[in-house]
Amino acid sequence: MRNLEDFVPNAETRLRTLVETAVDGIILIDAQGLILTFNPACERLFGYRAEDVIGRDVGMLMPASDPGEHGRHLQNYHRTGERRIIGVSREVRGRRKDGTTFPIDLSVGEAKENGRTVFVGNIHDLTALKRAEADLVGKVEELKRSNEELRQFLHTGSHDLQEPLRMVASYVELLAKRYRGRLDADADEFIAYAVGGVTRMQQLIRALLSYSRIGMKTTELADVSCESALQKALANLRSAIEESGAQITYEPLPVLLADETQLVELFQQLLANAIIYHSREIPLVHIHAGRSGADRWTVSVKDNGLGIDPRYFERIFVIFQRLHRREDFTGAGMGLAICKKIVEHHHGTIWVESAPGEGSTFSFTLAAAPGACGVNTLAAMPP
Q1: CATH number of 4-125
Q2: Residue 375 Cα to chain centre, angstroms
Q3: Per-residue pLDDT tens for 243-261?
Q4: Which site among 48, 77, 252, 310 is 20 to 30 Å from 116 CA-CA?
Q5: What are the b/e assignments for 274-299, b being 16+ CB within 10 Å?
Q6: What pTM was computed for the model?
């Protein structure tokens, strides 16, 4: 068996090899701040040769404003023993031989060498990281500007399209009323196509406007009765509800921290979706809520509609994505995209649980109103 002494020379050689081949700079200074060791990585970082700096004050590697602060830290350590700079990684700036500065991550450790205190500094160059961060910040700002320009274009373009489209719709409807049955069958069919196309375009533009408005203005969130928002959505959908014979019930619902207009829109889109995509049965929709942690609620809208294949769960929340032909179901294909944008604007999440032929349950989470610990006490009832 070999003795520990047999490994000492090798250990010293290995330590020297580690220091000399390290990717990061390693510097050793004494209690007075004089440089004792300056490895090759430090030479590459600072542009000095080791023999140029050994025995000199470490302040030469710092910008003009920093050596005084370093000296105060060192003096404070000797005076009080406070280890503020020991074992802590911090970002500072280094100064190269040519006078240029660069960001570094510096961590300092304390050691004993032949009975004296020495300090080991590990230096990691942050130049590439800072450049990448700056590029990322620039790209984020550029993306924000691009998104804002796109949102403004979407809003303004959709708004400006309404007036000429309204004129086209008026004249096409006038043609339909005045000449239906007075021309041949082809003409009647063409007019019907024109009316249908204009109607779909109007629906699409209204949906685009709704989508573009979400998040355009910074609105302060307030306590909103979920039940009150639901009632307003039901009032807006009264014609569709009566025409379809839909039966909508709900349990007591909570008070949420939300934008009331957007919460009404959220309920309206989810209910309209349940009414549009119903099976041969009368649409049955039930809304309930449950706690989701200490400060959030999950609200669910369950229907008995056609159901959705799990393969399409992500797709249905994307703008303009449809799973059915326009001829089979009305709508602009944006309802669930609007829902997703509203929920995410409130820092919540939305998802669906469904299977073909088994109906769907759309659920979303929103923040509970501060101080509201329960649900509204009004009795649940259909509209």
Answers
A1: 3.30.450.20
A2: 29
A3: 889 999 999 999 999 989 8
A4: 48
A5: bbbbbeeeebbbbbbbeebeeebbbb
A6: 0.54
